[in-house]
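Protocol step 4 of 5: obtain the predicted structure for the target chain.
Materials: sequence only (see below). No template structures provided, no constraints applied. The aim of this step is simply to have a reference model before the mutagenesis design in step 5. Sequence pasted as it appears in the construct record:
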Amino acid sequence: AGSGAGTDMRTEISTAAAFVTRLLRAAGGVGEEQLRCFRECLQEAMREHYKHHWFPLVPSKGSGYRCIRINHKMDPLIGKAAGMIGLSHERLFQLLPSELTLWVDPFEVSYRIGEDGSICVLYESPQPGGKAAKQLESRTSCKEEWRIGRSSPSKSYNMMTVSS
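Step 4 output (structure tokens):
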């Protein structure tokens, strides 16, 4: 499969997989060889999952589909990779944060730990041929929807109250 410049998702996927692997390593109890295998399996699972859902020209398209989520339920891609190295879902829940959201989009990988955690960018690269100002306006990816659609306001945002 020939992929043109800018359509390759290798960097984004390896960034995301390395991040989850680092979380596992930090928790301890998983060997380096297992971790390496986990990272490779996760990258492969993500590549397969995102194959027809990667739109560099419209980076936020399909964002919800590519969103990796642990929220009292194990993300199937992480679960699959962990299964390859013999880690059960129960064990994963002990090792990984119970609330983790990881957004893997063209040109940006970011994550949030906890429902009210702040969003941290792991990887960001400029979009080819895009004007930054225009991108920011049109950016209602799943991150924005999470922020808007959340029932409890996050502690890190100061809510402005408008009194009439």
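Step 4 remarks: The beta strands are 68-71, 99-105, 108-113, 120-124. The CA atoms of residues 12 and 42 lie 12 Å apart.
Proceed to step 5.
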